[in-house]
Design brief:
- The complex is a heterodimer.
- The model of chain A has no long low-confidence stretch (mean pLDDT 96).
- Helix content of chain A is 37%, strand content 15%.
- Chain A is built from 13 helices and 17 strands.
- Chain A folds into two domains: 119 residues, Aspartate Aminotransferase, domain 1 (Alpha-Beta Complex); 254 residues, 3-Layer(aba) Sandwich (Aspartate Aminotransferase, domain 2).
- By secondary structure, chain A is of the alpha/beta class.
- Chain B folds into three domains: 56 residues, no CATH class; 256 residues, Type I PLP-dependent aspartate aminotransferase-like (Major domain) (Aspartate Aminotransferase, domain 2, 3-Layer(aba) Sandwich); 133 residues, Alpha-Beta Complex (Aspartate Aminotransferase, domain 1).
- The model of chain B has no long low-confidence stretch (mean pLDDT 97).
- Classes of the chains: A alpha/beta, B alpha/beta.
- The interface between A and B is large, with 212 and 206 residues.
Chain lengths: 457, 488
Amino acid sequence: MSRYTAVTEADRGAMLRAIGVDSVAELFGAVPAGVRIDGPIALAEGQGEQAVYTHLRELAARNVSTEDEVSFLGAGMYDSYSPALIEMLMERSEFLTPYTPYQPEVSQGGLQVMFEYQTAISELTALPVSNASVYEMPSALAAAGYLAKLADKRPRFVVSRGVHPHARETLRTLARGYGVEVVEVGLDGGVTDRDAWFAAIDDDTAAVFLQQPNFLGVVEDIADLAEVEPITVCACDPQTLGILRPPGEAGIEIAVGEGQTLGNRLDFGGPSFGFFAATEEHLRRMPGRIAGETVDVDGARGFVLTLQTREQHIRRERATSNICTSQALNALAGIVYLAWLGRRGIVELGELLARRTDFARHALAAVDGVEPLFDQPVVREFAVRFPGADLARVEALVGACREAGVNPGYPLGRDYPEFEDGLLVALTEQRTRADIERLAEVLASAVTAGRAGPVAE
Amino acid sequence: MKTIFERGAAGRRAFVAPPSEVPETPLEELVPEAMRRRTPPRLPEVSEPEIVRHYVNLSKRNFDLDSGFYPLGSCTMKHNPRLHERVAALPGNAKLHPLQAPEASQGALELMWNLQKALAEIAGLPHVSLQPSAGSHGELAGLLLTRAYHEERGEHRPKVLTPDTAHGTNPATVTMAGYEVVKVGTSADGGVDLDDLRDKTGEDVACLMLTNPNTLGLFDPSIEEIAAIVHGRGATLYYDGANLNAVMGVTRPGDMGFDIVHFNLHKTFTQPHGGGGPGAGPIAVSERIEPYLMTPRVVRTEHGFDLDFDHPRSIGRIRGYQGNYGTFVRAYAYICSLGGDGLADASETAVLNANYLKARLAEVAGDHLPPAYERICGHEFCLSGAPMKRALGIATLDLAKRLLDHGYHPPTVYFPLLVEEALLFEPTETETKETLDAFVAAIAAILAEAAENPEIARTAPHTTPVRRLDEAGAARRPVVRQRKEEDV
């Protein structure tokens, strides 16, 4: 017996007799000698629960979390507040431990959660159909690419450089497999270069990809950029959709986005969920699970996984996606969060973030040696620059601020060599005015200290 | 039950915004009119107590592993230790930003490094990427790696072989990766048809995707010959790790000759299924595949652990950030708890439990539910409900639905496709003999009842929150969101 098994010596004897063999080893008789392990698996010996807890706690203590410093790190994932009731619901056995709802009669809880989630995502994006989640935003954007490839045989995608670098790279990796070329359109003044955008989109373009707000935090005129013939895809920050024009009202056919801020943890990058909503015409090409409303034999309301002929377990090589296990539990957090935030709260939160972002941008611009990188509208994140600095210098400034207990943001030069003096600063409802003022102070000291001599890395 | 959108009242709320503390600049001055939303999204308007009661009541309409036996074949529904939830929730894990500086995330990087090392050992393959988010995501990575490997050799290989017993994700992945599926047949004893494999493995084949034991629960004893055929023609061999729970401590995919293997951390390594995720599908690869492995990679340097992006021949990333780190924490805690011997014991016991359940079912239901193949099985086994259907007039689906009334989750049904009225049982190692015996008694009772009155099973379930649902109607007229009265 090991930690979670329960076969006693007496059990084993009775079980082997019932099977009609003399030893457990006989059960592995089909494994040829040539491929057998000689000896035990070379791993450390198993430990008791207390020892494992201690080991994991020690490892976790070597990480600097958003509880340990004042963090303005964002770039796609944000230190948003998640209400305590979400933890309670996510840890309930009934949500935590079932498999995908293949037996709907005993899965009505999970299926109705999916249906409610889909409804909330449709409302948020102003698009009529949503699936029940995919892995995370970059995968969702790439999944939209595959939908476009199935819908439209043309050989090219056009993607704005304002799209998250991880999403652009994921799209490129996957598109190489099915043979679609990805063309990138650069930025001009912090937004997608309008002339280059329309010039790049032609008869060979199957789909175009934008992000709102873009990776630099700037609000794009997506309605203008979406006035093109190919399939339009936009990655949206869901926390800004209470105040920003929803993609469905701006000519976007497929909206995707990162669900981490909707009640999920940072978790060093996952698990969260990616949402995926579209116009009606794309319903039968959507990837992943979709819950639908129906009735049982007595006429009672119920929910099932529907349109399963799209999916891998039915359609196999003709499936619209290979996705099976997705992010159901994280999508549960998403719908509970959106219900908690509510119709008014989503607007109030959006306004709060926009005001604090504006305040922070002004506060940092007032620091000697810091300038806003762009002056376009921003609502939750913005970029500043340290004129004359290179990436190493920005990294050093970040290090100096972190020494003082403030993580000032993400050095843009890591992904955008053209902005190597840039820093991306994110706000959440957890960063107070005092935090923002502290950031300005710490940044000012770091810049001044840097002038006096090189900042230690 | 009512939906959350049918509860509450206009003006009701749970969220109270923190004070803004900054000037109340009108939104019009911050965002131009054309970019603003005119009417708020119609999210629910409910109080916190209403939310709690609604979702707690919804949860009670789910069957779950913590409440009862869940022998769903190919899904490895083993116990989910609560320790794992506790360690995953530590602020150093749960509140760690994915772009935190490596020097400030040493614990997380070390955990990932240790997990990579452990998975490499279990796979018998030297290099691991934790990035894929689920099994099918790992499969996709594996085929993109195969493509990169052959492209660098200037080889054009448009086809990928999958057995006709394969999980649906295999052929779906093949298409997504831009390949053409070629099916390989199954031999009389349930393994790969070697003649068919030899015929179909030409210079145009990139890869064979295989599960071993396969989806019938049968270990293919010809694995060395299969590997020789596939490698002999320059193709790669991919191991679908969905059934890894059958072989830990006995053999390793690398020893069997596989080049690429994915793990399902949500199967073998106890990540709770969450009603359909999250999971993770790390892959392990051989030396020849390593140059193409995804970035970033976790590396150990003289200064500690770091993320390494500098691999020019890499296929790049296949998702955001570092992967589903929360699942890595749970899988790592599990491996620390069990150690090498514990993992071997898990597989031994899983196989013992499966063979015991198979033997006991043969005893009470052998005529009605014969095994698809008369062999010792791995961690799961496949029965055919066809004789039952002929003799008693109840189909596999009816038996499955009647099991719900007995408080059990049914096995996987109608898969693999090549077995008529298939039932695929996977009891896992964490169930007791008493549970297996009680389950056998329930099957026996259902068959006896059907001999008297098949109508009871045909109209089952009778005790669940809803009864059989109109799935055809749902697909014909899809209602995939709640419509508000103002829409109608």
